[in-house]
Amino acid sequence: MRRTFTWVVVGLAIGMTACAGDDSGSTSDEPTTQAPSTEAPVVTEPPFEVVKPLASGVGATTVEGPVSGGAGAVVFGTSAFDGASFEYTEEEFFISGTATSYTSATALSEDGSWTVEAKDTADYKTRILVRRPVASETFGGTVYVEWLNVTAGLDTGPTWSLSWIDLMRQGAVWVGVSTQRVGVEGGGNAMGEFRVLKKADPERYGSLNHPGDNYSYDIFSQAGATVWQQADTILGGLQPEVVIAAGESQSGFRMASYLNAFAPMHDVYNGYLVHSRGARAANLYCATNCADPGDPSDVKTPQIVRIREDLTRPVLNFVTETDVVGTALGYRRAEQPDTEVFRNWEVAGTAHGDAYSLGINDGERGDGQADIELFEAQFGAPTSVYMGIIECSKPINAGPHTYVLRAAIRALDTWIRTGVAPASMPKLQNNAEITGYEVDGNGVALGGIRTPYVDVPMAVLSGIGQEGGGFCGLFGTTTSLTADQLDALYPTADDFIAKWTEATDAAVASGVILAIDADAIKSAGANYGAMRAEM
User: Fold this and answer.
1) How many domains does the chain have?
2) How far is CA 22 from the centre of its chain?
3) In terms of DSSP bridges, do strands 88-103 and 117-133 run parallel, antiparallel, or are they unpaired?
4) Is the entire prediction scored with pTM above 0.85?
């Protein structure tokens, strides 16, 4: 007699049903258990020589540290870092110098081909946070420099949060730069005011001085140059081979402007990860806050900004479902084709922020438990984050953002080192209004980078459709499939495991999931399948 694969999750009050889409998407009967597809136009390009950046015209910095004192702990994000079990250490430094702000004699163009000129200078002193291998022999040679995000009113590292376990597996160094004024001096979102550096620990950080975001671009160049020029001090003697710049969300908007105005001029970084940006880019110069009517000296960016086409360093643009559609972000309006130095990856079933980056990653140990927890979150994703500070109306996204981002970061590093570009990937199939997606019969978005999470679904994972206060609109949704739907899709446990394994292997073959992560993903699926088979 056939053993029914009944998907009733014991101990979880699910009470949800699948929907066909909640943002004006259409439906189709296309099956969702097929292997992922990466059909897209093939881009060919000549190999380019990997040349160490010159850091031309970038001002020198003075480094202090490692910093100690005050309350005795680093102030960063909402949780402490414990890298001892990974043989990693965390050190904090202060860098100071003279930064330049920039203006433009002409209005900034949508194509990103900007010409800027120096406006004025100001002295600054800010913080950089370094997480690195303790042993030099485990250093893989790559340093990732993240423009810390201050949207919540404090310094956070979203790219670090989503990828740190693999950065450590690489033996990479991560450097977080307090690039913007809010993280140092305050004045941003009141939610994060208690973690502003100079307010959280006045004794430790009281000497810092940030003159304003007009100087942030030059500060970021100087921080990257410091990695190259003062590695003996800030990297404990590790010598970088590749230095990659990264910025997510609000910092991704800054990264877009940095690429268009400063990357060609300063040439500090070997490559760039632009993570979860929208259609715009950050303003270049604001006399106050660039609010209408503004000041005559303000230099704002257009509502749509693309990355300039004459760059010579690789750029990987990584976006989720949340980022591509809608009026708030709407990256689709600024999309551009792949070139010899530009790749765009759009990932189905993912959200700007999700269950992994907003909690599961805090318990990540690289032992497979976090992979099981993320898998099972498809049947019990939280509706609140940060101990209830943010309450959303629906379970937040429990998708594969972290896995594909890890693969993207490695692909960018390989691209820089070998000249072999990542594969061109298909775009998500948004509707004509750019408000939602074309979806399959279960409500899963079509197109984009495919993983087992969307092609062998346990739930409808979406980057849109969330409601609630705070930042809920960025957290997407998880709508668990019903037991009847799951039984129809996967009549037996063995059937589910076979399909999950096949889809995972296909994602590895297409370069969007790392083999080491695939083993954990398959184990999580097999563990769950075996448990259900016993019911």
Assistant:
1) 1
2) 25
3) antiparallel
4) yes
